[in-house]
Design a protein that fits this description.
It comes from Halalkalibacter nanhaiisediminis. One of its GO terms (cellular component) is plasma membrane. The chain crosses the membrane at residues 57-82, 94-116, 122-141, 179-198, 218-239. InterPro entries: MetI-like, MetI-like_sf. The chain has 250 residues and is mainly alpha-helical. The chain has a single domain, classed as Orthogonal Bundle (MetI-like fold). The protein contains ten helices and no strands. It has helices at residues 2-28, 37-46, 48-83, 85-98, 103-114, 118-142, 146-154, 159-196, 202-211, 215-243. Helix 9 (202-211) packs antiparallel against helix 10 (215-243). The longest helix has 38 residues, at 159-196.
């Protein structure tokens, strides 16, 4: 019952926005430029087979591969910077600087370097998702209370036991916060990569529909991209609630 109540207001807001969109599209009466939600839904049904069978798997492969690489690199980098102060001084400014460069400006270069295959899109996705995972996990490690560390040391615990039982649990909330940001950004990264150059994928399909002046066709893969982001975010929430049961409100 509580979960139903929590969905009431977001559903009401979404319904209101869709109703406003439908009325605005009806008044504008330009379906090729500003399609209505009903027109987009109809087009999604018409393009369902092409989107789901060919383009959706291609985009999912890019997103999941990019996230996996970002998880491995991001967590490893966070641990290295936390354990080795010199590494923090060397890598942290570079991480910050890497986010000041517009990824969309580098994406065409990746297409030139790695071609129109999957690699260039994965690189774009990794560059976008790597930063929040690294920084959030690193900040989580630094929030470990010194009192807990001193207590474990006085008990004669090993470094590995201290890391696994104190420092990792302290970093988990921040890690999941960064991961929730990363999964939503991964969709954007995959779409940008496909938009600039690809042979398949939802971003590629949206661009192809734009060249045909099919407004509803442009929105159809965008809706699928949004759904992917929502599903991934909810999956992370479920995993987070499993590992951080102690944070759940009674």
């Amino acid at each position: 019952m509580k979960q139903v109540r929590s969905l009431f207001y977001p559903s009401l807001l979404l319904f209101g926005l869709l109703a406003l969109w439908q009325m605005s599209a009806t008044v504008a009466n330009q379906p090729f430029l500003f399609p209505s939600p009903l027109a987009v839904a109809k087009r999604m049904i018409e393009l369902h087979e092409a989107l789901v069978s060919a383009h959706l798997p291609a985009t999912l492969g890019i997103i999941l591969t990019g996230l996996l690489i970002s998880l491995i690199l991001g967590v490893s980098m966070a641990v290295i910077m936390y354990k080795i102060p010199i590494a923090e001084k060397a890598f942290y400014p570079v991480l910050i600087a890497s986010q000041t460069i517009p990824i969309i400006a580098l994406a065409p270069l990746f297409v030139l370097w790695f071609g129109y295959g999957m690699t260039s899109k994965v690189v774009v996705t990794v560059l976008i998702t790597f930063f929040p995972i690294t920084v959030s996990t690193f900040d989580g490690f630094r929030t470990t209370k010194k009192e807990y560390i001193d207590l474990m040391k006085t008990m004669g615990t090993s470094r590995w036991h201290l890391f696994a039982k104190v420092e990792v649990p302290s970093a988990l909330p921040s890690f999941f916060s960064g991961l929730k940001v990363a999964v939503t950004l991964s969709v954007i990264g995959a779409a940008i990569g496909e938009w600039l150059g690809a042979q398949a994928g939802l971003g590629y399909f949206s661009r192809r529909m734009m060249t045909q002046f099919d407004g509803a066709g442009v929105f159809a893969p965008i809706v699928w991209l949004s759904l992917i982001g929502i599903v991934l975010f909810l999956l992370v929430r479920i995993i987070e609630s499993h590992f951080l049961k102690w944070r759940q409100k009674k």
